[in-house]
Automatic annotation (TrEMBL):
<protein>
    <recommendedName>
        <fullName>S-adenosylmethionine:tRNA ribosyltransferase-isomerase</fullName>
        <ecNumber>2.4.99.17</ecNumber>
    </recommendedName>
</protein>
<keyword id="KW-0949">S-adenosyl-L-methionine</keyword>
<comment type="pathway">
    <text>tRNA modification; tRNA-queuosine biosynthesis.</text>
</comment>
<dbReference type="InterPro" id="IPR042119">
    <property type="entry name" value="QueA_dom2"/>
</dbReference>
<comment type="similarity">
    <text>Belongs to the QueA family.</text>
</comment>
<keyword id="KW-0963">Cytoplasm</keyword>
<dbReference type="InterPro" id="IPR042118">
    <property type="entry name" value="QueA_dom1"/>
</dbReference>
<dbReference type="GO" id="GO:0005737">
    <property type="term" value="C:cytoplasm"/>
</dbReference>
<dbReference type="InterPro" id="IPR003699">
    <property type="entry name" value="QueA"/>
</dbReference>
<comment type="function">
    <text>Transfers and isomerizes the ribose moiety from AdoMet to the 7-aminomethyl group of 7-deazaguanine (preQ1-tRNA) to give epoxyqueuosine (oQ-tRNA).</text>
</comment>
<dbReference type="GO" id="GO:0008616">
    <property type="term" value="P:tRNA queuosine(34) biosynthetic process"/>
</dbReference>
<dbReference type="GO" id="GO:0051075">
    <property type="term" value="F:S-adenosylmethionine:tRNA ribosyltransferase-isomerase activity"/>
</dbReference>
<keyword id="KW-0671">Queuosine biosynthesis</keyword>
<comment type="subunit">
    <text>Monomer.</text>
</comment>
<keyword id="KW-0808">Transferase</keyword>
<dbReference type="Pfam" id="PF02547">
    <property type="entry name" value="Queuosine_synth"/>
</dbReference>
<dbReference type="InterPro" id="IPR036100">
    <property type="entry name" value="QueA_sf"/>
</dbReference>
C-alpha cells in the first residue's frame, strides 16, 4: 500500500511533553465496532471491559540508552537499539561520519566503547569496555531515551526516569517504553481485579527502530528492525484458556500485540515464544491472537498507525484521529489512549 495513505495533519500543540497526572486520569477514546465513539478516561476501564477479559502487558524495563560522548575532537551521540550479547549493543549513531571501525568513544563517568563494526543500515555495533555489567555503566553515563518528538522540544530530566517507565517494568532491555501501559496505576489494577478483568505479562524489548520514519513510498519496501521477545508456556496456556472460555484478549500496547501475533499460528493458538520478531502489520493482515488493543495515538505515516489501521480499517482510523484532534486528545508517548475493539 502507498505510505501516503496513512498521512494526516497533526497540530504540534497536540503532542504531549509530560504525562497526565495521575496517570489513569488520561483521556481514553473507546472505539468498539460500529458504536459511536465514546470519550472516557483510563480510570473508566473496569466499567468498559467485561468480566473474563484479559489485558496483556509488556514487562520490559527502559534502560538509560542515550549516550553522549567524544571520539577525539568529534562529538558522538549513540542510542542503543538492540543487545547483541553481554557487552555488545547495536546502536544508532549521530555524527557517524566521524566514527570508524576500531575507534574508541569516551562517554561520561569513565565509560568507553569500541566501534566494532558498521552495519549496512549505518548503525554500529558498540563493545563496552571493562568488567562492570553494561546496565551499570548505562545507569552511570546514560539518559532516558525519550522519543525525538519530545526530546526535540525539551531536555530530558530526572522526572523522566520514572515517568517513562511503566508500573510493570521488570526486565531490563528496552530503549523505548511500551507507552500504553504508562496509564496504569495500582489503584486502577485493583479496580480491574475487582471487576474480574484478568492480566498477563510478556516481554518484548522495544528497540529505537520503533521511532524510525517509513522512508519507502510503498509499505512492501519497508524493513522492520528485529526486537527480542518472550512468552512462556504457562502464559500462553492461560491466554488460550481465557479465549476458550469466551474472554477477550486485549493487548495493552502495540508491542504486546506484535509479540502475541508472532507467537500465534493460523489455528489461533498462542504458543510459547522466545527470539526475535520483525513482524510488520499492515491492512490486509488477519489477526490471530488478539480481540482488542489499548494504545496511544501515533505518528502520521508510522508503522504503528498502519497497525491500528489494519485492526480497525484505514477509513475508521482516519475518523478516530480526526475526532481525537478535534476533541483535544494528547498524542504520542506521553499522550492519551484509545481502546480499539473491532
Amino acid at each position: 500500500m502507498r505510505v501516503d495513505l496513512f498521512d494526516f495533519d497533526l497540530p504540534t500543540e497536540r503532542i504531549a511533553l509530560r504525562p497526565a497526572r495521575p496517570r489513569d486520569a488520561a483521556k481514553l477514546l473507546v472505539v468498539e465496532g460500529d458504536a459511536p465513539f465514546a470519550d472516557r478516561i483510563v480510570r473508566d476501564l473496569p466499567a468498559v471491559l467485561r468480566k473474563g477479559d484479559v489485558l496483556v502487558f509488556n514487562d520490559t524495563r527502559v534502560i538509560p540508552a542515550q549516550l553522549e560522548g567524544r571520539r577525539g575532537d568529534a562529538r558522538i551521540g549513540a542510542t542503543l537499539h538492540k543487545r547483541i550479547d553481554l557487552r555488545r549493543w547495536q546502536a544508532f549513531v549521530r555524527n557517524a561520519k566521524r566514527l570508524r571501525e576500531g575507534d574508541r568513544v569516551e562517554f561520561p563517568a569513565d565509560v568507553t566503547a569500541i566501534a566494532e563494526e558498521r552495519l549496512p543500515d549505518g548503525s554500529f555495533i558498540l563493545t563496552f569496555e571493562g568488567e562492570e555489567p553494561v546496565e551499570v555503566l548505562l545507569e552511570r553515563a546514560g539518559r532516558m531515551p525519550l522519543p525525538p518528538y519530545i526530546a526535540g522540544k525539551r531536555e530530558t530530566d530526572e522526572a523522566d526516569r520514572s515517568d517513562y517507565q511503566t508500573m510493570f517494568a521488570d526486565k531490563d532491555g528496552a530503549v523505548a517504553a511500551p507507552t500504553a501501559a504508562l496509564h496504569f496505576t495500582p489503584d486502577l489494577i485493583a479496580a480491574l481485579d475487582a471487576a474480574g478483568v484478568g492480566r498477563e505479562t510478556l516481554t518484548l524489548h522495544v528497540g529505537a527502530g520503533t521511532f524510525l520514519p517509513v522512508k519507502a513510498d510503498d509499505t512492501e519496501d519497508h524493513a522492520m528492525h528485529a526486537e527480542w521477545g518472550r512468552i512462556d508456556t504457562a502464559t500462553a496456556e492461560r491466554l488460550n484458556a481465557a479465549r476458550g472460555a469466551g474472554g477477550r484478549v486485549i493487548s495493552v500496547g502495540t508491542t504486546s500485540l506484535r509479540l502475541l501475533e508472532s507467537a500465534t499460528g493460523k489455528d489461533g493458538v498462542i504458543r510459547p515464544f522466545e527470539g526475535d520478531t520483525s513482524i510488520f502489520i499492515t491492512p490486509g493482515y488477519r489477526f490471530r491472537a488478539i480481540d482488542g488493543l489499548m494504545t496511544n495515538f501515533h505518528l502520521p505515516k508510522s508503522t504503528l498507525f498502519m497497525l491500528v489501521s489494519a485492526l480497525m480499517g484505514l477509513d475508521k482510523m482516519q475518523a478516530v484521529y480526526a475526532h481525537a484532534i478535534a476533541n483535544d486528545y494528547r498524542f504520542y508517548s506521553y499522550g492519551d489512549g484509545s481502546l480499539l475493539i473491532p
